[in-house]
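Repro case for the chain-ordering regression, as requested:
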Amino acid sequence: MATTSRRLRPKDFEGDAPVVARALIGAIVLIDGVGGRIVETEAYDREDPASHSHSGPTPRNQAMFGPPGRAYVYRSYGIHWCMNFVCREDGHGAGVLIRAVEPLYGIDRMIARRGLEDVRLLCSGPGRVGQALAVTHAFNGMRLDQAPFEVRAASEDVEVVVGPRIGISKAADVPWRFGLAGSRFVSRPFPKPVSLRA
DNA sequence: CTCTTGATTCTCT
DNA sequence: GAGAATCAAGAGA
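-- result from build under test --
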């Protein structure tokens, strides 16, 4: 249950983006009681050409340069709301994109918002997560350790898989995408590990 | 100012 | 697999 694991505080988000992104796999995220287990994340930071923060603070990305443990929400393709968790305590412009969630709580509300009943498709993508959890710009900059957010650490060790990020043209080969091994709720399959011998 | 490009998803072919 | 929906940054004139 969500109440069995420790609630994450800002200090838990002070690490580098890839470290936090990996640590968030298996964590529970809820907005107004609706959500589930994080099964896919991607890391971004200022040195990364693919990151919104790469060219410094702007009105849109200012949350990324603020305190860690807060949300950075942006509009994607003029249609979708995508949510990041801001990390690092030094205003570096680092964050973790929440790409997929395994629906566990408030599934009926997610179904209503998404207009689908296939649980597997409710939160399997950053735009889908935004719609299922009713994310909007109103959440931009808000603390993740206060209502309506509830973020809890993974209650047990989980096996994490890594791969290149999705939907970007710059630094597309950087392996900063993390996923829960074997999860059916990721947005896309992870590349199979390179076999050393045929 | 105009032009291009997206950290995407859905629908139709 | 291709195209649309739809808008805010970012780049360039």
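Ordering looks correct now. DSSP finds three helices and eight strands in chain A.
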